[in-house]
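fold description:
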Amino acid sequence: MLLSAWSLCPSTSTSLGPFPFPPPGSRWCLSLSILKWKILCPRGPPAILVNEVHDINETVQTLQQQLRDSEVTLQMLVHAKSVLEHDLAVKANSLFIDQEKCMGMRKTFPSTTRLLGPV
C-alpha cells in the first residue's frame, strides 16, 4: 500500500498502483519522494554520485595545483624578464659610452693597417 502512493507524484515516471483516496498536494509528493529514496536507497546516496563528487574534488585539487604551478612559472618569467631588461640597459649604456666618448679618441689614433704598413 505504501509504494502505491508513488503513482500520485507527478515527478515519478512509473506507476506503482492505484491509491485509494484523492491525490495529495505537492508537499505530500515531496514527502513521498524522500520516503521512496529512503526505501529504495537505505544506505545513502548511490555510489555513482559519491564517485562523481570524489572525481570533482580531485579535479578541483588538480586545477588548484596547476594554478599554483602557473603562478610560480609566471613569477620566474617576470624575474627573467627583469634580468634581461637590466642586461639590455647595461649593454645599451656600454654602446653609448663607446660611441660618444671612445669613438672620438679612436679617430685620432692611426689605424692598425697604417701602423703595420704594407705587408
User: Anything to note?
Assistant: Confidence is low (pLDDT under 50) at residues 1-16. The CA atoms of residues 9 and 29 lie 5 Å apart. The chain has two domains: 1-44, 47-119. DSSP finds three helices and no strands in the chain.
